[in-house]
């Protein structure tokens, strides 16, 4: 049986990142840079004042008073300071040529004809130097960076309005299957349940700044194949849930196995039955229907797959290490992902291991990974923990 690691490698081997394209900076949030962005200008662009006050030449301040020779406001061209004078200067305004320090208003009498200074400044005081943040040619955001508002601000600040990034948004089609499924708000007939996987998966997809479209299909392989074939024409990735195990109505497997999509068990719990392949060229990941299984499969397989398609240089998520608050058990030969409550380096189990326990999933904030070879782990053992708080 494939380990989760081997299955993930099989998926990632098959996927390549979307081609990079030139896109406007303002719509590039969350995209992955395909090239270093280097600044064509220094930042600050010119020496400027960090304070509202007076610019002067320190050597001219032999007493405490200087005549005031005009002002330099933000947005005005660089002035020249006449010898023996102070010049009003506003925060962000160019330092007048010849000045070598700034005295804030608070250390003066705020005079307009002449100014009296109560605290002698030091050389260079309150001057923000040209290029002290970034020099021409410095990297503002490196290749592989996922553009955050901070990166975007830095790129905008050096005057660049377009970036070369891997094309997004990715369009992901989330398809739930099962004759028993009803949407929240609908009446439940005997044997029916409310559908929750497509909402969960779509929101997890959107959390990665990709687009998600949801749909639900009943247990009819022909109808399902027709639907998935249609979705493949306008999707970068398809995710299905349900219908992949050994039942008599396992519709996803029935529809897709004949087309060469791989179905098989992965040595993990939850999430044992999985499927992966391509439908008319579009990658398709088939997740089990149990809600916790679908969630764990997203974290372990779908998120890395989507991140690889989006061009992330390190698509695989990283667990943290934490210490077990108490003993935990697991079946032999399967990596177990228990629901946990994590705080301050310690994790405890949240209810049972069942893959149907969606209430427990909502109450937890972490998945506790119990290695395949372990059946009992003592309190105090260090384990991998996958934090769920930021999903
Ligand atoms: N004989 C066997 N039976 C099962 C096996 C097995 O190896 N042999 N594996 C079990 C495991 S493990 C899992 S996981 C499930 C996976 O089953 P499917 O992927 O075929 O999923 P379904 O049968 O369609 O549904 C399972 C369960 O989840 C509920 N479900 C399905 N879709 C949704 C949805 N969109 N929202 C909320 N809940 C959903 C469904 O009602 C079922 O209760 O198979 C085991 N059986
Ligand atoms: O492996 Mo299934 O995903 O336990 O419930």
UniProtKB/TrEMBL annotation:
Give the similarity note: Belongs to the MoeA family.
Which cellular component appears as one GO term in the record?
cytosol
Extract the GO molecular function terms from the UniProt entry: metal ion binding; molybdopterin molybdotransferase activity
User: Which reactions appear under catalytic activity for this entry?
Assistant: adenylyl-molybdopterin + molybdate = Mo-molybdopterin + AMP + H(+)
The molecule here is called: Molybdopterin molybdenumtransferase
- Entry-linked InterPro entries: MoaB/Mog-like_dom_sf, MoaB/Mog_dom, MoeA-like, MoeA_C_domain_IV, MoeA_C_domain_IV_sf, MoeA_linker/N, MoeA_linker/N_sf
CDD domains from the UniProt entry: MoeA
UniProt-listed Enzyme Commission number(s): 2.10.1.1
Q: Which UniProt keywords apply?
A: Magnesium, Metal-binding, Molybdenum, Molybdenum cofactor biosynthesis, Transferase
Function recorded in the entry: Catalyzes the insertion of molybdate into adenylated molybdopterin with the concomitant release of AMP.
Occurrences of domain MoaB/Mog (ranges): 173-308
> What biological-process terms (Gene Ontology) are attached?
Mo-molybdopterin cofactor biosynthetic process
Its cofactor is: Mg(2+)
Instruction: Kindly tell me the pathway this chain contributes to.
Output: Cofactor biosynthesis; molybdopterin biosynthesis
Q: Which SMART domains match?
A: MoCF_biosynth (SM00852)
């Amino acid at each position: 049986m494939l380990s989760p690691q081997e299955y993930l490698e099989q998926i990632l081997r098959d996927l390549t990142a979307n081609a990079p394209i030139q896109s406007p900076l303002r719509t590039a949030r969350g995209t992955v840079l395909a090239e270093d962005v280097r600044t064509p200008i220094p930042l600050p662009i010119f020496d400027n004042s960090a304070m509202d006050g007076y610019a002067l030449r320190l050597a001219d301040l032999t007493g405490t008073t200087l005549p005031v020779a005009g002002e330099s406001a933000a947005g005005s061209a660089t002035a020249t300071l006449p010898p023996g004078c102070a010049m009003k200067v506003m925060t962000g305004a160019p330092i007048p040529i010849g000045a070598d320090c700034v005295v804030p208003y608070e250390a003066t009498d705020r005079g307009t004809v002449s100014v009296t200074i109560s605290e002698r400044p030091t050389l260079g005081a309150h001057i923000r130097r040209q290029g002290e943040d970034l020099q021409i040619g410095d990297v503002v955001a490196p290749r592989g960076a996922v553009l955050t508002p901070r990166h975007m601000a830095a790129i905008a600040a050096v005057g660049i309005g377009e970036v070369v990034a891997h094309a997004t948004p990715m369009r992901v089609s989330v398809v739930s299957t099962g004759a028993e499924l009803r949407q929240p708000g609908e009446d439940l007939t005997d044997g029916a349940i409310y559908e929750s996987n497509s909402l969960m998966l779509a929101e997890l997809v959107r959390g990665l700044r990709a687009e998600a479209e949801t749909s639900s299909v009943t247990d009819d392989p022909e109808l399902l194949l027709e639907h998935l074939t249609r979705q493949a024409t306008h999707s970068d990735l398809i995710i299905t849930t349900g219908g992949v195990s050994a039942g008599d109505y396992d519709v996803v497997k029935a529809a897709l196995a004949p087309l060469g999509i791989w179905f098989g068990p992965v040595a993990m719990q939850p999430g044992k039955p999985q499927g992966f392949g391509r439908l008319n060229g579009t990658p398709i990941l088939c997740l089990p229907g149990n809600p916790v299984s679908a969630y764990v499969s997203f974290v372990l397989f779908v998120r890395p797959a989507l991140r690889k398609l989006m061009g992330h240089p390190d698509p695989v998520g990283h667990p943290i290490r934490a210490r077990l608050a108490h003993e935990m058990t697991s079946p032999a030969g399967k990596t177990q992902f228990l629901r946990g409550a994590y705080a301050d380096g310690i994790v405890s189990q949240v209810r049972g291991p069942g893959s149907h326990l969606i209430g427990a999933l909502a109450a937890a904030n972490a998945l506790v990974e119990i290695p395949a070879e372990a059946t009992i782990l003592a309190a105090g053992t260090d384990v991998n923990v996958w934090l769920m708080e930021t999903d």
